[in-house]
Write a sequence for this structure.
């Protein structure tokens, strides 16, 4: 057998490297946990509130639909404003930025009832990752598919299950989205005796 060489004094730099080497996974785990906690807080407790009042940017006006298409609450019409997919929906309550039409302002053949008609416009681009949202009229289907229990229709994104409440001006009530849906400005015009809804502005995207 060969002669065993005497070991020299321990190398402090190697010892320090070994100490830090086992700390790396611990630090990585702590960083991951911190990031996860931050995301949980952001997604579940930091939903942004819609602006009150909204700040609309002017767009080239487009026709949405005759007022008579909105005869009852939750009647809705899809349209495109300056390349932006949008939705106009009749709501049971007024929200900041909504169009409130008194019966006297509507054409005689367009008034659905004696109450004011409240219309609101929303962008259909989900503020999470840009998928299209739709008006879901079935609260039970929303509870089953989107894990959000409510008592009214909602604007839902099927890509990642975000839910926006039109009665709360498009605020996120469930899912990974944080920013509310941008609202669209609607107006009432009369053409040849027919009450028409137009869109002529939108909130900037978040």
């Amino acid at each position: 057998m060969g002669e065993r060489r005497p070991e020299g004094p321990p190398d402090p730099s190697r010892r320090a490297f070994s100490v830090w080497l086992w700390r790396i996974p611990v630090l990585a785990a702590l960083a991951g946990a911190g990031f996860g906690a931050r995301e949980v807080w952001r997604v579940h407790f930091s939903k942004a509130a819609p602006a009150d009042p909204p700040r609309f940017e002017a767009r080239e006006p487009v026709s949405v639909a005759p007022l008579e298409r909105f005869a009852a609450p939750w009647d809705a019409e899809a349209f495109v404003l300056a390349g932006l997919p949008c939705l106009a929906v009749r709501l049971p309550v007024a929200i900041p930025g909504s169009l409130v039409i008194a019966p006297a302002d509507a054409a005689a053949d367009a008034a659905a009832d004696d109450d004011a008609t409240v219309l609101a416009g929303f962008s259909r681009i989900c503020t999470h990752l840009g998928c299209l949202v739709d008006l879901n009229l079935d609260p039970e289907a929303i509870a089953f598919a989107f894990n959000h229990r409510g008592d009214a229709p909602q604007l839902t994104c099927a890509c990642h299950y975000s839910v926006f409440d039109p009665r709360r001006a498009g605020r996120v009530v469930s899912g990974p989205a944080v920013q509310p849906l941008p609202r669209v400005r609607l107006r009432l015009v009369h053409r040849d005796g027919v009450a028409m809804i137009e869109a002529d502005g939108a909130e900037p995207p978040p």
The two ends are 75 Å apart (CA to CA). The domain at 57-202 is CATH 2.102.10.10 (Rieske Iron-sulfur Protein).
